[in-house]
Design goal:
With 143 residues, the protein is mostly helical. The chain has one domain (23-134). Helices cover 75% and strands 0% of the residues. It has helices spanning 15-41, 44-74, 81-104, 108-111, 114-134. The N and C termini lie close together (11 Å).
Length: 143
């Protein structure tokens, strides 16, 4: 039997959400690593790198959030618990990522340590979303 492109993961994430999260998570992780480099060296360019990486992660997380919201609103079978958990996790990533972007918009001394702490939280949530979306058995997959 041929694999279908629209199959779902067990956590309620669509396969395209997984791809978008796989793009967003490394960008948020890169922002965290850039914040750590800034905290160790105080080179302002590391903070600029972090701000751009977080902005890139926000683009992919925002697209995944809109996709998930439309899926929950438009699909009747998507109103179960799984897709709502995925939607809430994406919403938390997007809101905290936006606050993180605002913290990184400050000057270099004003962005730390709150920006570093927020980067840790957002990167952890993004990694948890990726792990949740790829773990477990896929519904509709061949056994």
């Amino acid at each position: 039997m041929a694999a279908r492109a629209g199959r779902r993961t067990a956590a309620g994430f669509h396969l395209y959400h997984v791809v978008l999260l796989a793009c967003a998570a490394p960008l948020f992780l890169g922002g965290l690593l850039s914040d750590l480099a800034y905290a160790r060296t105080y080179e302002i360019q590391w903070l600029n790198f972090a701000a751009w990486l977080i902005a890139g992660g926000m683009v992919f997380a925002g697209i995944a959030l809109v996709w998930s919201l439309l899926e929950v609103l438009l699909r009747r079978e998507a109103r179960r618990r799984g897709p709502l958990v995925g939607l809430l996790l994406l919403l938390a990533i997007f809101i905290l990522g936006l606050l993180n972007s605002f913290m990184h918009a400050r000057d270099a001394w004003g962005a730390m340590p709150a920006g570093l702490i927020m980067s840790v939280v957002v990167a952890a949530l993004a990694m948890a979303a990726v792990w949740l979306s790829v773990s477990g058995d896929r519904i509709g997959a061949a056994a």
